[in-house]
Amino acid sequence: MKMLLFRLFAARRLLYGAVLMLSLSGCNLLGLNNTPEPTATPTLTPSATATATLTPTATATPTVTPTPSPTFTPSLTLTPTVTLTPSPTFTPSLTPFPTVPPAPPVRIAADSFTRLEIDPQVIANLRQGWLAFINSAAPTTTALPGTPVAVSDRQTLYLAAPDGRQILRVLELPASTGTRIYWSPDGNYIAYFVEGNGLFMLSLQLGISLRLFAIPSLSPRGVLSEPTWSPDSTQFTLALTTAYDVDIFSVGLDVFGVGTGNLLTNISQSGGYDFFPQWSPDGQYLAFVSDRAICPTWEPNAPGSCYTPDAPVPDGGQLYLWERATGEVRRLAEEWLVAPPQWISATEIAFIGGKRGDPLAGTTLYRISINGGAPQAVTPSQTDERVLRMAWSPDGKRVIYQTSGAENTIIMRSADGQELARLDARLSFPRFAFSAAWSPDGQRLALGGSNGQCPFGVLVTNAQLQFITRAERPNPGMCDPRWSADGRFIAYEGVLASTGTGDGRLDVYVANSGGVGARNLTSRLGGQVRLLGWLGGE
């Protein structure tokens, strides 16, 4: 009985051990990472009776498949907004232009005094309505009519009676003077330019010549601007080079000890280019052209300066007016003038407006009152046609001019822009080679070529452009016609063309008011002749 109990006890212990081992193995299966050490096998203590030893079979340890750790997904770290600090803006510094020295101040030279012998007959006939012209041959040279003579390096200024019976020698000058001779309206003074020497003035009454300005040319800084006399012959007005620009100056007769105490006056006084001076018929105003509103200064490196080393000469400007009584200067028109203005009455000015910087652009003819108001267009605004060589009637009511475009046409219009007539298309003058002159009473027109281009003979029309005399054959051709102050004569430069082509020699001709009965006044002088115009006779 005891033996039986012992065996039952031993079997129970074995059963507990097996259960324990299975429990441990289950724990291992539940995720223990370490493999447990083998469990010691219990040794049964034999009883006195030998009993077989029970050796338990080792339980296989299962391979544990590791569970992969979950992948760690990091939270997104917000990137802070970076405020950009702008780099300093590089401001290029303007390289100043090289220093340009200013022109010297304008001063009257009043030197090179010369006493001249003036023919008393010249003085006696200054107001008789004679013609002034220059001849480039020596005074003793004679030639057959139409025969060219070698040109001399000297030229002579002459006065001639319109009937040709008397020709008076006035003054001998260098041939380089050309037509740069400016006779005062009263005939008492002559201003003239000598190449390489300067501008001079001669008093015929005193027989004294002196140098006004030691200047290299009459084109200050390249601007072609003709000098002019005031109607009362007391002021000689011209454009001159100043420090960095061009101003208009007026010279009084005090240089000869006569006048009103006004020796030299700067009329325009601006930092721009001022040029094209034109006196009103009553002498109370001076119209001129200026670029001052566009270019307040031409001084290098000055604020607002238009100067650059390669800047072109202004091709025009706006219309300004100087009042003699007050010295006030005011702008009359904003249009861009491309030619000198022209007075058509004591209170009205005509001008040609174009496009700044484009000499080939179309132009328009305007008129404007000096008493106020906007400019009035006389011709249609053109895109390709240019208005050239305008000539206004004495009363300012009609104008004749040449257009250059697809064709060169001669047109007459009223002052309000109405087209009145056109010249026959067969009478086509070369571009820039047309001139017209109205008779003093405004009833007739003389039409001709210009600058030696004289394609037709004498052409005279009435005020409606209907022909009175029409000599299309140029024998001689007529250029630059001028009416005498009394309206009795037409003077012009003529080119003989007996063989159908001109021989290049110009002579001075005078015809009656109808353009007929022309006389050659200079045929026996030889050399080349240029007409200056009528003197006196009013």
From TrEMBL:
Query: Which domain of life does this protein belong to?
Result: Bacteria
One Pfam family this sequence matches: PD40
Gene3D superfamilies registered for this protein in UniProt: TolB, C-terminal domain (2.120.10.30)
The record's InterPro entries line, in alphabetical order, gives: 6-blade_b-propeller_TolB-like, WD40
Residues covered by region (Disordered): 53-76
In this chain, composition skew of type Low complexity spans 53-64
Q: Which family does it belong to?
A: Belongs to the TolB family.
Name the chain's protein: Dipeptidylpeptidase IV N-terminal domain-containing protein
Naturally occurring in which organism (per UniProt)? Candidatus Thermofonsia Clade 1 bacterium
